[in-house]
Amino acid sequence: MGGRWRFPPFLRILVIPGDETPTREYHLSRRLLIVLSVLLAAVAALFVLMTISYASLMQQARRVPELQRELLASRRQLAKVQELNRALEQMRRTQEQLLAMLDVAPPDSGLAAADTAVTLQDLAAEVMTPQPDRWPLHGYVTAEFSRGDPSRGTPPHEGIDLVAPVGTPVRTAGPGVVQQAGWDDELGNFVEIRHGFGYVTVYGHCRDLSVAPGDRVDAGQEIGTLGGTGNASGPHLHFEVWKNGEAVDPRTVIPGDPEAGR
Q1: Are 260 and 246 in contact (CB under 8 A)?
Q2: If you average pLDDT over every residue of the chain, what do you get?
Q3: Which CA distances in Å does 147 have to 37, 52, 72, 153, 244?
Q4: The CA-based dihedral angle spanning residues 235, 244, 179, 183, taken in that order and rounded to the nearest 10 degrees
Q5: Which of 199, 159, 208 is nearest to 181 (CA)?
Q6: Cα distance between residue 52 and residue 33, in whole Å
Q7: Structure confidence at residue 161 as a pLDDT band (50, 70, 90)
């Protein structure tokens, strides 16, 4: 009485059938009862741990779309900041040129009157450069321009993908100045060209490049060849058109069909 409970020496189980079959009797020893109790406790503990782990994984999975939306928004903000920095740099250069033209340039600028006239002439020619008006190559369109749906985690596709044989020449969509040319983890070998009236074109996944930053290019000039560098599922050209810092559908700017004339 009042002592600690202990397992009985054995457990007797009687099985009484409903028919004339004799009653059966089974005995479970104390050791077997202890083993079964420990196994039952272990299974219950494992079930609890699995339930807790599953709930944690489900909570993390629900956060994935939200994290993807935040990453997409951050990338778009970064692109806008980079475009703003380029615009500010262009404004700074324009200001220096205007000061030089008005003879108020710093004494150590080393900018002579003749150099100033040439620079302003080049600047005016750059600003008044026609907008892009031709496709960089003709090929099959495998992905159209899309703004995506950030609320559903669908990223935008800010250009058109054109498939053609590897090594096909990639040509400029219009005259302009090469702003960037080199390597990008996403676009691979790429070229970015600034045109007039706020237009910029981008050519990605090239196999090789034949221009450098600062080069002036004519409409239709070869700037590289088609390849599959960077984050590309296969050889193709990723072609973008930007207007005043915002990506636009190339089909709304460039006439004709990129698949025509293959």
Answers
A1: no
A2: 81
A3: 61, 39, 12, 12, 16
A4: -40
A5: 208
A6: 29
A7: very high
**157-159-160-164 Cα dihedral, nearest 10 degrees:** -110
| H/E stretch holding 237 | strand 237-243
pLDDT number for residue 18: 66
Q: Is 50 exceeded by the pLDDT of residue 112?
A: no
For residue 259, the SS3 value is coil
Banded pLDDT at 32 (limits 50, 70, 90): confident
* Confidence check: pLDDT of 222 > 90: yes
CB 105, CB 111: distance < 8 Å: yes
Quickly count: other Cβ atoms within 10 Å of residue 219's Cβ: 16
Q: Is 90 exposed, middle or buried (0-12, 13-18, 19+ CB in 10 A)?
A: middle
Contact 163, 177 (CB under 8 A): no
Q: Coil, strand or helix: which one is 187?
A: coil
What does the alpha-carbon distance between residue 75 and residue 66 come to, in Å, rounded to a whole number? 14
CB 212 within 8 A of CB 233: no
Alpha helices in the chain (DSSP H): 30-101, 113-127
Q: What is the pLDDT of residue 72?
A: 78
Phi and psi for 161 in degrees, rounded to 5?
Answer: -100, 125
Distance CA 193, CA 203 (A): 9
pLDDT band, residue 58 (cuts 50/70/90): confident
pLDDT score recorded for residue 104: 45
The pLDDT-based confidence of 109 (bands split at 50, 70, 90) is very low
